[in-house]
Structure formats: C-alpha cells, structure tokens
Amino acid sequence: MQIYKVGGAVRDRLLDRTVSDVDWLVVGATVEQMQALGYRPVGADFPVFLHPKTGEEYALARTERKSGRGYGGFTFHASPEVTLEEDLVRRDLTINAMAEDASGQLHDPYHGKADLDNRLLRHVSPAFAEDPLRVLRVARFAARYAPLGFKVADETLALMRQIAASGELQALTAERSWKEIERALMEAEPQVFIEVLRSCAALEELMPELVHGPDTLAALRQAARHQQPLTVRWACLLRGLEPASVKALNQRFKAPRECQELAVLVGEFAEKADHALTLAPEQLLEILQRFDIYRRPQRFEEFIGACEMAALGHGQPSYPQADYLRGAAAAARAVDVKPLVEQGLTGQGLGEALKGERLKALQAYAQR
C-alpha cells in the first residue's frame, strides 16, 4: 500500500498558494484493508474513506470508462492493480495530475510542473472530452489563476469547442452547473470564466442570453476587486438583460433564492438608482418599500453595491448615488411607529399613516 498527496494540494504548494483541502490517493489497497485500518467508507460511486483521526479523504486508485451522457456517465473500477499513472491520467488538467509521496518526492508523469511554470492549463489525455463538466472547470481555473498569467492551451480549447459542439453540455444538471458557476464567480477574475466559455462556444450553449446581451464583464470585474458577495456578482453579470432572460438564467441553473431576487430587483430598479439624486421623494419611497428595507436592509445594501460596481465598470470615478440612497433608507427607517399606534391607528390606517410619515421624512432629506 502506498499513499500519495494528489491534485490541488500539490498544485497550490508548487504555486506557493495556501493549501486548504488535501486529497489523498491510496495505491495497492483493498476496501477490506482500508476498513481494517479504521478508515470509514463514504464514497457512493467509488471507494472513498475518511481517515479515522484527521477526517481527511482517502480514495482508492481507480480507472474510469465512459458509459453514458453527461457528468455522471462513467463506470469506475478500483482495485489494488490500478497504478498511480493510471489513476492520474483520468484527471482533467496536467497541473491537477501530480502526486507527492510520503517523502515529499514529486510524481509528475504528465508534465504538470512544466505547465505550471509555463502558466498553461492543458488537458491530460483525450479522455478529457468525455466529461462536459470539465469545460466549466477549466474556465473556472482560468478565472482563478488569471492573476498569475495562466492561459488555456490551444489544444485544450479545441477539445472544449468539440464538447460544446457535441451537445453534451445540455446533459449537465442545474446543480452541477451552478456549483461551478458559483465557484467561478467568487474567483479573483470571474470575468475570465465568461470569456473562456465564449471563446470555446460554450457560452451560447449554457447562457445564450449573454452572448449578444450587454457587456457586463467590467461590472463583474469590479465586484471581484471590491470583494462583493455572490449575490452582487450574479446580479452584475445579469444586469441589463430583459426580465425574461433574467428569469430564464435564474431558473436554468436553480440559482439560490437570494441571487434570483437581487438579479430581478437590479433589473427593475438599477436605472432609477442611477438617477437617485434627482428622484422625487415618492419615487424614492417606492424603491425603499419594494426592497422592504425595514426587515431586509442587507438586500438593499447589496442592490446599491451592484449599481455601484456597474458605474465603476463603466469608468465612473465614484458613485455618489450610493451614499444618497443609504441616507434615504436611514431617514425612512428613523420614522417611529409608536406615536401612530398611541393615536389608536391599526391595520390599513396605520400602514397609510406610516407611509405618509416616511414620505415627509424623505421630503426633508431631499431638501437638506
């Protein structure tokens, strides 16, 4: 039995990046041997075990064979006879197909270290084309390592085009696709994810609404630079699309509810926010009421963030509307309901009176 550290932990150590998760590969062992040593089986599709003390994942070396469409269309075979090289060859990129043994010696049968040095994202073998999810994974890695100068190798981009043309991307589940999209949007250069998908014709298969839609990548880049949350980044990407297109993208990938809501609200109110300094108090109140700023202040703050990122992306040096909108929200929130209740107002009457007081507060705010 031989145990190797594999994949991302090896890659990121060589890049002097922080290693967060460590994956281990076990060559020459059986399921029974692992269990006898106290490892707890957790793999549904192939043998994966949790270390009895550290809880880290240890997988038995395996091979795979294409047996159906999509990400899940594979048959796996794990046995003590499977070699390290046979396991590594099934991985996506050469930089992810390196291993370290217990002594720290690097095992690099597919020249991942050279590709790291040359800043190339290159596939390991032609079997890359069997898994359509790898198109999104490579685009995500391109977004992550773009600050280091990484590019997708021409031959790998050609294979990605082949996958896009095959229709296999349509076999991906919404859940698997969103997982990659979510992770890509939170990378250092998320706009690169979209650019790579466009360059291999995968964007028109996955997000055709963005192919001829407004250019939102500058806003997305600003959102990453300002460390905005996922909700804001998704809203930035979808800003300017027709409501039907926003709805289609939200539903196609089953985006989280918070992401869906903010994308819809940005589409509906972003233009008004851009003209906030000249809005009538009644219009301001309409926006604040629609966002339910009294119970959900964070959503309004994220809306302001999305609008600001778009402005910065269009080259504006600042976005004074942001502070103005925050001030308007604070003025409306400051209205005290207690005096109205003490007057005996209830139900619809209380609601109308409260709305009137908030409008007065906004009128005073606009005139300050």
TrEMBL record:
Domain Poly A polymerase head, first and last residues per copy: 4-122
Class of this enzyme: transferase
Annotated tRNA nucleotidyltransferase/poly(A) polymerase RNA and SrmB- binding domain residues: 149-210
Chain positions recorded as ATP binding sites: G8, R11, R91, R137, R140
Residues engaged in binding CTP: G8, R11, R91, R137, R140
Stated role: Catalyzes the addition and repair of the essential 3'-terminal CCA sequence in tRNAs without using a nucleic acid template. Adds these three nucleotides in the order of C, C, and A to the tRNA nucleotide-73, using CTP and ATP as substrates and producing inorganic pyrophosphate. tRNA 3'-terminal CCA addition is required both for tRNA processing and repair. Also involved in tRNA surveillance by mediating tandem CCA addition to generate a CCACCA at the 3' terminus of unstable tRNAs. While stable tRNAs receive only 3'-terminal CCA, unstable tRNAs are marked with CCACCA and rapidly degraded.
HAMAP family: CCA_bact_type2
Any further remark recorded for this protein: A single active site specifically recognizes both ATP and CTP and is responsible for their addition.
Protein's name according to its UniProt entry: CCA-adding enzyme
Organism: Pseudomonas farsensis
